[in-house]
Amino acid sequence: MKIIVTLIFLFVSTFFLTSYADTELENISLIKVAHILDSISTMINAAEAQSDPLARVQFNYQTLRDDISLIHQGIMQKLDFPTIEPMVVHPLKDDFLK
Questions:
Q1: What's the predicted TM-score (pTM) here?
Q2: How far is 84 from 82, CA to CA, in rounded Å?
Q3: Which of the two ends of the chain, N or C, has the fewest CB atoms closer than 10 A to its terminal CB?
Q4: b/e code 60-93 from CB counts within 10 Å (16+ = b)
Q5: For residue range 19-73, what is the model confidence (pLDDT) as tens digits?
């Protein structure tokens, strides 16, 4: 549960701070998030190894791994997508309402 709360806080704070940043700063922040997600995956494996297999309620670690992987894939897809520069629109030279 702490991992989920930390993850939510991380994404909210990262995207709030980068909402006014340019694309390069956004990409740097997303790379940091991807590295943190990799660390979280290691922590998930450690938590699963320490879990009690005889406990009445079992946590679904695979679903958590799948969700983290989906977020990671989305970040990587955004980072792999080429940045498109906005087009400059030039004003018309003539007045067509004579």
A1: 0.61
A2: 6
A3: C
A4: eeeebeeebeebbeebeeeeeeeeeeeeeeeeee
A5: 545 788 889 999 999 999 999 999 999 999 999 999 999 999 999 999 999 999 9
